[in-house]
Amino acid sequence: MKRDMILITGASSGIGRAIALHLAAPGAVLHLGGRDAGRLEAVGRDCAARGARVLARRQDVRDAEGMAAWIGDAGPLDLVFACAGITASTSPRSTGAPRESEGQVRRMLDVNLGGVINTVLPALEVMGGQAPDGQGVRGRICAIASVAGLVSFPGTPSYCASKAAVDRFMVATGGNVAGDGIRLSSVCCGFVRTPMVAANDFPMPGLTEVDEAAAAILRGVAAGRRRIVFPWWLVAGSRLMDLLPPRWAEAYYNRQPAGQAGSMPETGGMSS
Question: Which Gene Ontology terms of cellular component type are present (predicted)?
Fold first, then answer.
């Protein structure tokens, strides 16, 4: 897999940071985006120490114009990774059932779904104008969805919805743009040990170390997999759960610690 010209959102922490470090090598040019300037600078130094040329930019993925300008001005791109994302749970209320605030729902969709769209669409334009390589590939784009996108989990409604949309968008669009030599991949993974899950005070089955997750993602992208899944048994089980009538599934989910209101901070944690 070529890895010369690479752009990564959410690069200042979590999966984005791990992918950047895996790809940092002499000859690689890394365009790294994130919102936390200090952490982004630290990642850039670590990547540069491995021989990569680093071009860092403090960039909010919700800013469509800013994202289009950044990606459009980056030059040729071999690999693009949309890794920025947030998560949060429902919150308890003094009366009535738990709910998410309107602000949380809108922010979740703006970051997790809108941020991917603001990354992928400009990247498709750039790659569409590039000459294909010896394998007929003009470029590869990968977005981080989640196993949560395969279920309707009461504890994280907007997170599930946003990740489901990311997965469907990437997989379906990938079928179209494959004819143009552009490979799209969606990552449906379980819990990964990153700052995003650090505050989770409940069991996380199948918890994957972030370096292992980055390696699995890069293998899948190199192989041209439209959907990259791990751990497979968690994804398979989630698919089976989603076949159940909603009330049956909810009876199980609502007994899990992660399903309780307030199990995660309302404002979530942004991976960039």
Answer: membrane
Q: Which two tokens stand for residue 108?
A: 């979740």
Nearest 5°: phi and psi at 80?
A: -130, 130
Helices (H), the chain: 14-23, 37-49, 64-73, 102-108, 115-128, 157-177, 210-222, 232-242, 246-253
| Cα→Cα distances 251→141, 239, 242, 245, 255, Å | 38, 17, 13, 10, 7
Selecting among 159, 169, 191, 230, the annotated active-site residue is 159
State residue 154 phi and psi, 5-degree precision.
-60, -25
DSSP summary character for residue 146? -
Q: What share of the chain is helix, strand, coil (3-state, %, to 5)?
A: 45, 15, 35
Fold of 5-259: Rossmann fold (3.40.50)
Q: Is 190 helix (H, G, I), strand (E, B) or coil?
A: coil
From first to last of its 272 residues, the chain has per-residue pLDDT tens of: 555 899 999 999 999 999 999 999 999 999 999 999 999 999 999 999 999 999 999 999 999 999 999 999 999 999 999 999 999 888 888 778 888 999 999 999 999 999 999 999 999 999 999 999 999 999 999 999 999 999 998 889 999 999 999 999 999 999 999 999 999 999 999 989 988 887 777 788 888 999 999 999 999 999 999 999 999 999 999 999 999 999 999 888 888 776 566 666 655 444 44
Angle, helix 115-128 to helix 157-177, in steps of 10 degrees? 10
51 conformational bin, left if phi > 0, alpha if psi -120 to 50, beta if neither: left
Task: List the structure tokens of 32.
Answer: 């790294």
